[in-house]
Amino acid sequence: MSNTRLVKDQIIDIDWSTLSAGRRIQHLEVEGYVLFPGTLDSETVADLRDQLSRVPTGGTEYTDKKQVHNDIQWAGGALTELIAHPPTIAFLADLFGDTPIMMTYDYSRSEPGCPPINLHCDGQPWGSKIFGPEQSCPKLVRVLYYLQDLTPESAPFRVVPRSHLSFHNDANPYLRYKEHPEQVMVIPKAGDAVLINQNVVHGNYANQGDYARELLGIAYRPTWAGPCDTVDPWPEEERVKVSPAVREVLRDRNTRVWAYDAPSVPPNLASEAPGINPSRWDRT
Questions:
Q1: What is the DSSP string of the chain?
Q2: Are 228 and 175 in contact (CB under 8 A)?
Q3: Digit-coded pLDDT (tens) for 73-92
């Protein structure tokens, strides 16, 4: 399909700053994504961009116009501290009911002329060659930090809202799509973060602008929601070098909370569970 389609897709126009904590959770849970405006200040954005200018990158299998650096968590400085960015961790702790566990952290740069990224899911329940078991977790949120003010021409985010809720075979998380007639465009500014459910169908548009779009993507999950298979633990010799706040998020990625042999009537059953209240979206 021609890129002339680009500016014809619906552009999401929401005053994200007006959403309460409950409405942010609602938008993420129901629509599959939510935008946090200005979560990084201009000084932090500048520090990240300066540090990234010295990070080696490589092209992808489908284009050298997309440059990436996977597993960037040990770069130090602002890049490593971003793992424990307080507003993000506070929201995720509220969403999950405990401190999140980080699973992956990657950098990508879409150069001018970069083609669109196909619509896809990040969460694949049995792992895959692309993602491995790290993003097979039954519940996982990716936080996408944008470092430039974007336009419809400069590789903005695209998503098929509510696609993660579908039981249809078309929602198989291993499928990919070139386009979708109900995809929408989200245009972040520098310092904005887009949080996505790992099973929402999403991607980005082509970069038809004249500057690169830089993105840092960090995947977090609740303590209970471990991966389908064993993943490499974080190297302890690296963990001891980071700040206590970052170290707390870099806990054992293989942690799971399950009860395979639990009886149908376990002892000490609770009578309240605020995290599943239908009214949880009404909180201010």
A1: --GGGGGGSEEP---GGG--HHHHHHIIIIISEEEETT-S-HHHHHHHHHHHTTS--EE-SS-TTEEEEE--TTS-HHHHHGGG-HHHHHHHHHHHSS--EEEEEEEEEE-TTPPPEEEE-S--TT--TTTGGGG--SS-EEEEEE-S---TTB--EEEETTGGG--SGGG-TT--BS--TT-EEE---TT-EEEEETTSEEEE--B-SSS-EEEEEEEEE-TT---SS--PPPPHHHHTTS-HHHHHHS--TT-----TT--SS-SS--S--GGG-GGGGG--
A2: no
A3: 999 999 999 999 999 999 99
Give tens-digit pLDDT for 229-262.
Answer: 999 999 999 999 999 999 999 999 999 998 889 8
SS3 for 89-149, per residue? HHHHHHHHCCCCEEEEEEEEEECCCCCCEEEECCCCCCCCCCCHHHHCCCCCEEEEEECCC
What is the spatial distance between Cα 185 and Cα 175, in angstroms, rounded to a whole number? 20
3-282 CATH fold: Jelly Rolls (2.60.120)
CA-based nearest residue to 201, from 221, 184, 225, 216: 184
Question: How confident is the model at residue 9, as a pLDDT?
Answer: 80
pTM greater than 0.85: yes
Write the pLDDT tens digit of every residue in 197-208: 999 999 999 999
